[in-house]
Amino acid sequence: MQQDVFESVNTISLKDYQKREHLLTKIKNRFSTYGYKQIQTPTFEQYDLYKTIAGTINSDEMIKVIDPSGKVLVLRPDVTIPITRIVATNKQIPSSEERFFYISHVFRNSIVQQDKKEHTQAGIENFGPSTPALDAEIIALAIQTVNDLGFNNFKLEIGHAGFFKELLKQINISEQETTQLKQMIQAKNFSEIKPFLEKLSINTDVRHSLQQIPFLYGNTEDVMKRAEAVILNERMNDTLHNLIEVNELLKIYKLDQFVSFDLGLINHMNYYSDIIFQGFVENFGKPVLMGGRYNHLAEQFNTKIPAIGFACDVDSIFSAMQQQALFPTIESLVDFHISYSPTTQRDALITAQELRERGCSVITHLGNSTSNSLASYNVHYEENTISIRDQYNTRLFSNKDELLQELLQNKEEL
Amino acid sequence: MDYLTLAMAKGRTAEQAIKLLEKAGVHFPNFEEKTRKLIFHDREMLIKLVYVKAVDVPTYVEKGAADIGIVGKDNIAEAQADIYDMMDLNFGKCRFVLAGTSDKLNDQSQKLTIATKYPVVTKEYFKQRTIPVETIKLNGSVELAPLIGLSDLIVDIVETGKTLKENGLKVIETIDAISTRLIVNKASFATKSASIHRFMNQLERALEV
Asked: Residues of B near A (CB-CB distance < 8 A)?
């Protein structure tokens, strides 16, 4: 016989699934409070769509399939790009509609975790105008979403993709050197950045700024002050002032204590153009949430639409919630378990239907075994009596109408 | 404040690491190098030390099982862990080198075979130099490989070069300098920022003395 469980990560227990649903419901509810509507993109996407948009997903990571006509398709490796495509090209979506959320699986080959190819992401995309007010609103939503789940030590790090990109524009270094520099800044590798930059023949002002970038983290006011010294042109100045404005707005939301700034933040998704952020919970090594503004992605589809969004890594959030015991005990009780004998079947099934009509969950069963049933009420139909048992006592009724009346009254009390 | 968990590498750098921590005012009274105990506490500074194999330190820190770690750059580079590499502790200095009985780098008539404990670092280095190689992962006594024909060359770490010399091998190229580093988990850096900075400041002062 074939081994059923070939990779342990592919199986999820019934209980865990209920917990996941619980967390997804909370996330959905929060997204709705900001006026987002759910959308779903196709599981199969054109390989070319992802291939032509440079700097997004490594083509080795995409899971490809070939359809009968020889076209290469990929299993949805990301949600932001297809939603942008739908919004940019689909005339069926009214242009007044600019708030979307999704809960989708994304598929990627991972070199480090070969058995983990499927991830669930829950996120939003907003195609409204590019303003600090909207940036702040999105960040507020991100913080509230995580707070709703019960994490009490959540931190959202905010950076700006434009800051580092602008500095890179000032200098002329090879692709390999750029990658190395990015890695060092991402790792806050203070000891190696300095000698590395000294080897490059670049302008001293830019060198100084690049060297300072990984240090620009921590308390907002403090970072902003130190960042002034790094600014080389008008555009970087605007960037900084946008960030300051976002921070002021977050104070109105009373969420600024969850935020810290890190201008050394670089996201591997190259389409981010402005503000970027990632959220961390305690004792969990990876960010549980990532996002940012990507104002130029729609240009790939020949339109100009500003956009901002974020996605929660549902699998990571799930593990972190397990670890910190944040799930409530989820009862898997049904309301009624009705057992009957062949002669009382008719009455029993009618009762069951009436109860279901009124929104109760009911399991019916021939025979009188009630041992493996987890129900609030166990009902047993016999020739002349109907017994009903809850966790406290057993009561007897002589016919089904009497029983039903009693039960429905009780139900309202519940 | 909560405990900070510090993962420290067993082996050649442990003694020096403990000395530096002492200087920084962090004390683990029960600690001995040959101990079989794996966890120690500094109850005043609120630091919990977990004493693990060097190659595992980046994993502990990346996954968030430890907030900070003290480990050699060699293990950090090999693990490719997504962590902050924040401080050079200036001890445990050595080098990644390419070594062999003779310089076979220019002999491109056949694909080179490289034996190493560090296949990731090795592949990355040769990829940058655009030389195709095959790597063989060994767990110890790498110097033996070229002597008995298992590989053409080796990539290993050397401190003085004595072991290489005794086995008739010589350094062909230095790949990178190595020293012991302080690494930090990215989530802890955000969520336990105050305690981590306090710890780093103390280390910094100890390094200056």
From this structure: 61-64, 80, 82-88, 128, 181, 184-188, 190-193
